[in-house]
Amino acid sequence: MSFGDRINQFDVWLLDRVFQPFADRLPERVPAMAVGMSFQLGAIMLSAASIIAMIVIGHMALSDAMFNVLVWCLGLAFYVGINRVRPMVRPGHMNPLRVMLAGMRPLSIPFAIYALYQGATAPPHFEIALWFNSLANIIFVAGIYLISCEVRPPGHRQTSRVRFGRMQEQGSL
To answer: What interhelical angle do 104-121 and 3-14 show, nearest 10?
Structure first.
């Protein structure tokens, strides 16, 4: 098995075993797509806060921040693009974003890990800005996985929930 196949296998495992069960347990009025898009918007806002913090604190001139601003614009374009294809995601049908984002999901994980490393090893005067960036990357990863989850029809959602450490059927509460 090649390295690429192992990465794809890990991506499918993470999507099906971690994020899909979480998405299935969300209330019907709060679909995983909405939560994922909120996470994406939050990542954009935290990334902007990181860039602004670097400029305001005075450790980066506006001309030096242009690369970061351009990367932020790419994030914004990604959000707008996903928002435009959002009507294609329908309950009971295959989520087209699952296939469309198959390359983006596993690629976002090393960037988030590196951002965490940067935040943890940052000099004190860069620390707050880099932690905003780390949080933005983590939220981006969670959001991209949530918007890739299958949307189950309303009647097929899991109806049990945990109460006092054991599973109980919703009708017997």
So the answer is: 80
- Is 82 domain-assigned? yes
* Number of compact structural domains in the chain: 1
Residue 91 lies in a domain: yes
- Residue 170 · residue 159 · CB < 8 Å: yes
Whole-model pTM: value is 0.84
CA distance 1 to 156: 35
Structural contact between residues 73 and 166, judged by C-beta atoms closer than 8 angstroms: no
In-domain check, residue 78: yes
Residue pLDDT, tens place only, 6-42? 999 999 999 999 999 999 999 888 899 999 999 999 9
Q: Tell me the residue range of the domain where 106 lies.
A: 47-152
Give the Cα separation of 43 and 98 in Å (integer): 20
Whether the Cβ atoms of residue 43 and residue 145 lie closer than 8 Å to each other: no
